[in-house]
Every structure is written in C-alpha cells, then in structure tokens.
Design brief:
Mean pLDDT: 96
CATH topology: Rossmann fold
Radius of gyration: 15 Å
CATH class: Alpha Beta
Number of strands: 11
Largest sheet: 6 strands, mixed
Strand order of the largest sheet: 3-1-6-7-11-10
Number of domains: 1
Strand content: 25-35%
Helix content: 25-40%
Number of helices: 6
C-alpha cells in the first residue's frame, strides 16, 4: 500500500483538508495527516472559506480534524506522494524549516505533489517553483512570480499540471487536482 504525506494545520481550509484526505483513503492509500508540533490523534481546527460575492472569501469555523500521524515521526523516504492543504495554515507552516525540507525532498526525488489554494505558499518558501507553471489562490499569485514561477490564472474548478506538480486555486478544483494527482501516483482513474 502506498503512503501519502498530507500537510495541514490549524485553520487550514476545511474542504481542502477533509475532502482530499478522504479521497486519498477512498482509493486505498495510507494517509499520514501531520502538523508540526502535533502528534497522532491530536486535532487541528479547520476554517470554512466560501465565495459569497465579497472582495475575498469569507471565513467560518470548520471542524476538528484528527491527525493520523506524528509530525516528528515523518520519514520522507516512506512516502510516494505529498498533498498540501490550503487556508491560513500554510502562512505559518512555511516558517517551520522541517516542512520546507520535507517539501524539497519530494521535488528532488520527483515524487508527486499536489497543493491547493494557499498551500502554494509552502512551495514558494521551499524554493521549488522556479521555472514551473502553477496556479494558486489569486492573492498568492505574486508570491509565485517573485519565487520565479509562472503563475497561471485559471478558474477555481481547474488544476494545472507541471511535471510531478499539480495545483489548483481553491477547493472547487479538487476533482481535477486529485484526478491528476492519482495519475501521477500511478492509479487508473476514469474520466
């Protein structure tokens, strides 16, 4: 059984945590959902981001999400792929050097990586987007450009694939992002 590492944290977007996690389990992967400074069984608080016609998304309390593995026990060689949740969590997760080291490993080893929305902030901080085409929540687009990436503005339902990396601007793109991630992982997915 292939293992997938899933990075999330307090105030990660609810759908961007719950839905990809459940999709990964649905197809049979062992998913290690982790957060720095937290252990297996501890929970994170999520936030629901919605698009209600304001200048940016609204934010409401989400669910408590139980982590399935201890961050301190992560051995990157054990994982076939990496998924990074969006929301507010990436803005502080990227300040943890081990998060950046883990992210770099997946790019150096050319393993599949999926990141959604603000999860791309971890990629820019890790220095792995230079020369790559990717998308993100539009407010993160300038970070992609500053980090040397090619920001592609696409509808929130779309995903952008570049080599081992698949990204989407927000949770409405889960179906397309996860379909491409599963293909990168070698799974057969019907379209």
């Amino acid at each position: 059984m292939k293992k997938v590492l899933f990075l999330t944290g307090d105030y990660a977007e609810d759908y961007e945590t719950m839905v990809p996690f459940q999709m990964l389990e649905m197809v049979g992967y062992e998913v290690h959902a982790v957060c720095p400074d937290k252990k297996k069984g501890q929970t994170i608080k999520t936030a629901i981001h919605d698009f209600e016609g304001d200048q940016t998304y609204s934010e409401k309390p989400g669910h408590n999400f139980a982590l399935t593995y201890s961050f301190s026990d992560v051995n990157v060689d054990d994982y076939a792929g990496l998924v990074i949740a969006g929301g507010r969590a990436p803005e502080y997760l990227r300040l943890t050097e081990k998060v950046l080291e883990i992210t770099r490993h997946f790019f150096e080893a050319n393993k599949p990586v999926a990141a959604v929305c603000h999860g791309i902030q971890i990629l820019t901080a890790a220095g792995v987007v230079k020369g790559r085409t990717l998308t993100a929540y539009p407010a993160v687009g300038p970070e992609v450009t500053i980090a040397g990436g090619n920001f592609k503005d696409v509808p929130p339902t779309d995903a952008v694939l570049d080599g081992n990396l698949v990204t989407s601007p927000a949770w409405p793109g889960h179906a397309n992002m996860m379909r491409e991630f599963f293909k990168l992982m070698g799974a057969t997915v019907q379209a």
